[in-house]
Design a protein that fits this description.
Blueprint (H helix, E strand, L loop, with lengths): L1 H4 L38 E3 L9 E3 L5 H33 L17 H24 L22 E4 H4 L12 E4 L2 E4 L4 H4 L14 H6 L15 H16 L4 E7 L15 H28 L1
Parallel strand pairs: 3-6
Antiparallel strand pairs: 1-2, 4-5, 5-6
Length: 303
């Protein structure tokens, strides 16, 4: 039904104009953009990257970073030449014995970061991390509450040496004195937790003494001593754990060391409060003693 829409028939299609002369076989094809108009109305300047003085480029937005860098380099070269000229004049004045001012630094020389720059970078980095911690965790220190977050950790304390007799005076019975606790020779101030280590507290028996063996074995009633002889590897690990606990605690501070009298090596090792562990350690002890006694007897027989 196309005759209803176009009663006069479909219009003839336009045919592309043909060139009167046939193109040569080896002819270079024309640019596809030759028929498009050039709408670049930006001013043109000499091409900074070209060796041809007559070549120009547009100052359009895409070329401006390269042109700005070229202008910067040109300015740097001019300032450097001017500095060389001033330096030469200064040296000539010095040669003539004239008074000159301080030597001028090259304004185009690259400055090194140096210690001040490194400190600035570190300060900015710390501020950034603290603000990020406040944003993500609502804490400037990323919810860290250890001893390194407390100011008094960085204030040096007057540590002292304690005797066992002097240390016993800081067991919390005197409310005017702090509460001290020792573990393997290190004395800590635990006054912030007086309810635990003071009179009536569950660990009051630890205050005013060095009960390192009790920390290792768990025998809080019978091992209130600093004697750590005969401890197993696991018990020594437990002792080191508690030593690290007090050393890293956010409120307990080290106030000194306690001096213990020497332990007689021939004295008996404290027996474990657990009967099973005590029984397992007794045979080894008896066997060693019996072997030692038997060796002594055999030696006398030989004599």
């Amino acid at each position: 039904m196309s005759w209803i829409i176009n009663p006069q028939g479909a219009p003839a299609r336009r045919q592309p104009a043909r060139s009167a002369t046939a193109p040569e076989t080896n002819a270079v094809p024309a640019s596809p953009w030759a028929e498009f108009p050039n709408n670049d109305l930006n001013p043109r300047v000499p091409d900074p990257a070209s060796l041809e003085p007559e070549r120009t480029v547009s100052t359009k937005q895409a070329n401006r970073p390269f042109l700005a860098y070229k202008a910067y380099r040109t300015k740097q070269e001019q300032e450097h030449k001017a500095w060389l000229q001033r330096k030469k004049e200064r040296e000539e004045k010095l040669a003539r014995g004239e008074k000159v001012g301080p030597e001028e630094r090259d304004p185009t020389a690259e400055q090194e970061v140096g210690c001040l720059g490194l400190l600035k970078f570190t300060a900015y980095l710390v501020i950034f991390l603290m603000l990020a911690g406040k944003f993500f965790t609502d804490s400037f220190l990323w919810e860290y509450e250890g001893k390194w977050a407390r100011l008094k950790t960085y204030i040096p304390t007057n540590q002292r040496l304690f005797s066992e007799r002097l240390l016993a005076q800081f067991d919390g019975t005197d409310p005017e004195k702090p509460v001290y606790l020792a573990i393997d020779g290190d004395v800590y101030d635990v006054s912030d937790n007086r309810r635990t280590y003071g009179p009536g507290g569950p660990y009051h028996f630890m205050a005013g003494r060095d009960a390192a063996r009790a920390f290792a074995t768990g025998c809080f009633q019978t091992h209130r001593t600093h004697d750590t002889r005969g401890l197993t590897d696991s018990e020594l690990q437990g002792l080191n754990h508690w030593k690290q606990f007090f050393a890293d605690h956010k409120t307990y501070t080290k106030v000194g060391r306690v001096i213990h009298p020497a332990i007689d090596p021939s004295s008996p090792i404290p027996e474990h409060c657990d009967p099973k562990k005590a029984a397992s350690s007794s045979p080894r002890k008896e066997t060693k003693e019996n072997a030692h006694v038997g060796h002594r007897k055999s030696g006398r027989d030989e004599l």
